[in-house]
């Protein structure tokens, strides 16, 4: 009888006899972050692990729910000490077979404390209750450049979907793909998730102080490119097609994808992109990023000439020093973020036009109807607005009174069943996330090369007795085929099927959906996803958006 260690627990005769905790999927953005921490049970009847060969050595995975999972495969070397703030290097090859049955460390990060709504939101994102998914702890480290793969078979040539996690540019990891067995089996795709440097470690621009750190402001993005290079070189050994790779992500994940599309070195590493509530249209300038770096040095009691000392400071101290001491300058700011450094990002990303490097990459772009309900729960009055209260809020938001009257009349006409609070959250999302979606789609279309498909997620979820409505990231678990409420089963199949069909052949259409034509500036066709009522609508809220576009914000959501 062969015995093998798995996450410190004993596995005998090909069966996992005790739990292996695989942990944390984080979805959200930089100001108010939605986090979902879960443990994944590798239960009885798992078959003998399978072995795949990578360019760095062989790895052994484990079968779970009919899917072979590989966890914690290194795609880069440690970035600790002298590697901090510098582009990553290849991992050291290994002899023999490396156990890929336990996820590696997540990036250094400070998780936000749970809110009172934590349990209800947890259940929604895990697709089940505490008997299926459990909270757990996970090690974090600067040695975090690892990825996870879930595949139905090591043979074949299936579409590859690379999930880039959310959490702004500050928190999160790529563990969630290891629970995507249903999606992998039903849609016959290979799923990859990855960890990469975040926050101060991945997005601190020090190039203004020393040429040594000319790339430091974007090393988090460069890690993503290194992971995609790993996919191109190795995914065929896991049953994936390296010439058919789609990247997808929500919120911060979508913002990272928006940025990757403007990075020349990423060209050709992926072929399609799905951006969910993450249409980031610009990133930091060097002046903005240098100012943030100067504030960090000052907080640590260092001068600009002492920039090398930042490589010697304990990671926990550096992470704590990077916490903002006051309100961020804008939600779009997301704290640490990529920078136009003239190197990996040669020019501004999506402003004023689409990057030339996005040409030829087809895209799905969309957002949720009520993005801000998750972020504004501290203001309970927003959930009980009357008509005067709604009007007052819109005036305070910077829309002139006469325009507010016109705007509200149009919204009441087009959405007569919406309460004043419903309209407040709808208008908030239309003015920010949806405006960004439409701008990105328009600019992508003008840049040519590749189709664009636009969606809006409009299902009012039952979470917290329906208070959160179609909240930020609420379509993401459905795309992964995680269904907490039976009434959303068909909706989940529609979204997951669309994402997988798009990954397969560049067209999100499938038999479970109404016809979904490519986006055009003439009709602006938008697939509105709603449980029992998914439909294609041409140019929804056209007149309302025309007013809102006159009063743009600097906000991602």
Describe this structure as you would to a colleague.
The chain has two domains: 3-29 and 47-321, Rossmann fold (3-Layer(aba) Sandwich), CATH 3.40.50; 359-548, Rossmann fold. It is built from 13 helices and 19 strands. The longest helix has 28 residues, at 420-447. The relative contact order is 0.12. It has an eleven-stranded mixed β-sheet, with helices on both faces. The chain has a three-stranded antiparallel β-sheet with strand order 1-2-3, with no helix packed on it. Strands 6-7-10 form a three-stranded mixed β-sheet, with no helix packed on it. By secondary structure, it is of the alpha/beta class. Residues 1-48, 130-137 and 325-333 have low confidence and may be disordered. α8 (387-396) crosses α10 and α9 runs antiparallel to α13 (542-548). It starts with a strand and ends in a 9-residue tail after the last helix. It has helices at residues 118-126, 181-187, 199-202, 219-234, 252-260, 286-299, 315-321, 387-396, 401-414, 420-447, 476-479, 489-505, 542-548, and strands at residues 3-6, 9-12, 15-16, 25-26, 35-36, 51-54, 57-60, 62-64, 67-74, 97-99, 146-151, 158-163, 190-194, 240-250, 272-276, 362-368, 452-457, 525-529, 535-538.
